[in-house]
Amino acid sequence: MTQPAPDDTPGPTTAAPPTPPPRWRGTAAQLRERIDLRVAAALIGLLLVAGLWLDTRSRINSLQQELVRELAEASAFSKESRELAAQTSKSMRDLEFKIGMLESRVSETQNQRLALEALYLELSRSRDERVLAEVEQILLVGSQQLQLAGNVQAALVALESADSRLRRADGAQFAGLRRAIARDIERLKSAPFVDMVGMSVRLDSLAHQAERLPLAMLQRPGEPELPQGKSEGGMLGQLAREVWHDVRGLIRIQRVDREEVPLLAPSQQFFLRENLRMRLLSARIALLARDEKAFKADIRSARDWLQRYFDASDNQVGAALAALKQLSETDVRIDLPEISASVDAVRQQKLVRERGLR
Fold first, then answer.
1. Which string of DSSP letters, residue by residue, matches 33-54?
2. pTM of the model
């Protein structure tokens, strides 16, 4: 069965509840109380706002002062920063200059170090190599003195110095070299000695005396002596002797079997002395070169000029002639022994050592 639909017709209306009276409709006391509360709240709010405003203003002032102080400090810091930047820039330039100097010093130091290393390597060679090098140099000097100047004494000194250096080295490997040096020393000691230095000095002295030697043309014949004093016969005898002296003076006896002393002009006298001096100096050069032929020819020419143009009765001329005669009788060409054996022995020992090191 179906239920009947509800009835949509409205029923009787009910009465609405009474509306409460408005809230403002209170008593005057309550209204005043409320106004006082609102005024108090407003005053409190104003006071709070004023306090907040004052606090905020004071904070703003303090912030402004702090900001000013910070700005002043920032300005000072900026100024100091600029000064520091300028100083830093200057310091950087100085540092760059110093770095450049240091780099150059480092380069020089490296070059010096390389040079020192090379020197160290040179000095770090074995003791025997240094000894052989010194001995070879000494022997070469002695050989040059012997070959060029014929100086036997210098060669002997060189050989003895080399032997002394080898003796100080005290090495058994130098025994053969010392024997070769000893043989050369014995050969030099047994060689004939020619005083080249003394002869050279004498020729040089004669060359300097050429300007002071008197010429024969300047010699005057002696005057005949007049009879002096009284003798037998009195005045007549004295007169006769004077007459005889005058008559004898009219007659002159002269030898014609020898050449007359040549007369020389002043310019010829100068060139004669210069040629004599040059001839003596040429003989000195030939002596040092051990050219006996040229030496004897120069000495002979100098003697002939002295005997022909100069006064042989003078002591200086006589001494010069005697010295030239003694020099002409001296043999200057002497086959001197060489010391090449010692030099070859040193070089051979150096070569053997270098091959052994390889």
1. HHHHHHHHHHHHHHHHHHHHHH
2. 0.43
